[in-house]
Amino acid sequence: MNEFDLFRFVPFRLNRLSAEVSAALSEEYRTRYGLEIPEWRVLATLGFGNASCSAQFIVESTRTHKSTISRAVTNLLARGLLERIGSSDDRRAFELKLSRAGRKLFDELWPRLLAKESEILSCLSAQERKQLAAILNKLETNFDLPTSSHEEARK
Predict the structure, then answer these.
(1) Largest Cα–Cα distance in the chain?
(2) How many whole angstroms separate alpha carbon 144 and alpha carbon 92?
(3) Residue 117: how many other CB atoms lie within 10 Å
(4) Distance, CA of 130 to CA of 127 (rounded, Å)
(5) Could you read off the pLDDT of 8-35 as tens digits, one per residue?
(6) Is residue 141 one of the residues assigned to a domain?
(7) In which domain, by residue range, is 17 found?
(8) Domain containing 85 — which CATH number?
(9) Residue 154 Ramachandran class (φ > 0 left, ψ -120 to 50 alpha, else beta)
(10) Rg (the chain; Cα; Å)
(11) Given CA atoms 39, 42, 45, 48 in this order, what sign does their dihedral have?
């Protein structure tokens, strides 16, 4: 058996990279807007779709525990960044959407995060960025994860 090298173990490496990327991005929204990572995930999910959705959809899309999303939703509602609207499918349920203030925040923050992403990926050539995107798509497909917001909308 080969000697185990934790720093060559892909799950370990992906987890470390994910933590570093999240921390780098959170500097943008934590300092300027007082948002925590789960709150950003809620805003991002709602901001990209430009439509309402359930908290359960956010849980499934972000792969974040439902209690964490619930706390984030509560905080964002209290700050006036989200609105609850009645579900068209179930009178007892509700969906979430960005409020006017939430949309303004998202629209202001998104370009800053794109710039941060570009900074993070600046060590890669254009070809390497394409290869990384293809590899990530392949891994996401292997786990049956949506690889575009259009695909998620069809589900």
Answers:
(1) 59
(2) 30
(3) 13
(4) 5
(5) 999 999 999 999 999 999 998 999 999 9
(6) no
(7) 6-123
(8) 1.10.10.10
(9) alpha
(10) 18
(11) negative
